[in-house]
Amino acid sequence: MSMTTLVRDGVNRALRPLGVQLVRGHSDDPGIRPFLPARRVLAEARREGLSVEDYLDRYSAEPGATAATAAAMLRLADLGDKAARVCEIGAGSGRYARKVIAALEPEAYEIYETADDWLPHLRTLPGAVLRATDGHTLRETATGSVDLVHSHKLFVYVPLVTTAGYLQEMARVLRPGGVAAFDIVTEDCLDEETTRAWIESNAGIYTMTSRSWTVDLLARRGLSLVGSHFEPMSGGRTELLVFRKD
């Protein structure tokens, strides 16, 4: 049995009480982690009479978490009607995309998603433009072309080097005045209770990213922090950071 299989099986044992499991996306790159299977999530949401958003909120956060996060991001972004082009990294089920599209009505909504099984579902989004992804870059998005680039519940799982690469790419694709938003597990998310729970679970599925390092990295690329918002996550919380490009 391979080390990858052992790790996956260990994570799935930790997630079994939530009624979900991890499966491999289409990429073989070890820097790209597995995703929740579309068929199972969609089927269970339908069976329970829930939207995908409500189903995932109930199992991985708390009711209303997706809507609250999207509202906080849009409030801090303060884009008005200027978001003609939006890009999302790791859109997954599309639960955040639907909120953003409803609020901003962009002309194009670019999506980078490594999990093939979610792509048919994402194609139903208004204005969706699915991009070929390598799990590291936004190579099909032009420099300085995007009004809002965002990602949710992705950087909490991937290695730091993957997060750093994506942050650099987010800065590249933003137009002046554009907004980047994403959540990470920062120092401020790890209180004593959460730290103890992580140690006791020994699941090893989350990655912490330094808040000050993140702010400094993006500052060197012309982005300034405009605000943040804490949001719930299974086993703890994350911090949504919102930046504006000079």
UniProtKB/TrEMBL annotation:
The GO biological-process annotations, alphabetized, read as: methylation
Q: Which terms does the record give in the GO molecular function aspect?
A: methyltransferase activity
Family matches, as SUPFAM superfamilies: S-adenosyl-L-methionine-dependent methyltransferases
Its keywords, alphabetically, are: Methyltransferase, Transferase
Signal peptide (residue range): none
Pfam families assigned: Methyltransf_23
**Which InterPro entries does the record cross-reference, listed alphabetically?**
SAM-dependent_MTases_sf
Keyword field contains Flavoprotein: no
Protein name, entry field: Class I SAM-dependent methyltransferase
